[in-house]
Design brief:
Helix content: 40-55%
Shape: globular
Number of strands: 8
Strand content: 15-25%
Distance between the termini: 29 Å
Order of helices and strands: EEEHEHEHEHHHHHEHEHH
Length: 263
Amino acid sequence: MNIETLQNGELSIRYFRFGAPDGQPFIILPGIALKSVMESAEAIAEQYRAFSERYNVFVFDRRLSMPEHHSVGDMADDIITCMDSLSIKEADLFGVSQGGMIAEAIAVRRPDLVRRLVLCSTASYAEPSCRRIADEWLGYALSRNTAELMKSFAENIYTKAYCERYREAFAEFAKMVNEEDMQRFVIQTEALLDFDMREELGCISSPVLVIGAEQDIVFSKEAFLEIAEKTHGELYIYENGSHAVYDENPDVLVRIREFLDRE
């Protein structure tokens, strides 16, 4: 497994691929992160190894040299360009958090690119809870208070038990965040605040699975219900779990695989 860089005009995006080269395309669109998802490539491939036999799995990062104002729609257009450049059509998209927002936009703008759509821990707009947390993150990021930003990020994303278990690891991780990481984090977080696809959700024509958690404090249960209702999608909400239920609960990947494997 190698990390590749796709270049198309001014667009430059890193991605990695694993699994069956001739398998059904399965694209993972991650949420906002303090470090590039490319640095976790091996761990992600291991986490999703159950998909490797049948699926051709792609994980895309955000673009390099991200403009100061880069909307979620712009991020969706970046992925669309990548998919066209790699001749990927009728792919299964799995978007988490902001990645889910990107997936929503792709499904509306280019339905020919999407076979099935899995939206996890995401929403169709920035709810008050999301805006409050985003503002908190931006405050720490703009003042370059990496330690407090990492603490707030972890506490709002993961369960208390998970945060306590990996408290020291999070503190060490914060020391690795550099100036470029901070700038990209600010741009991605600001993009959340202007995102609103409530009026376009009904245009999504592919089968949809919506996954959420009762204890998610970034997005509400009502946000998950709204997406499922407007897309006529399936909905599953975990009673126990945080915003990062996709990382903390292995059952999420089992449920996704069952949805994708369905004829």
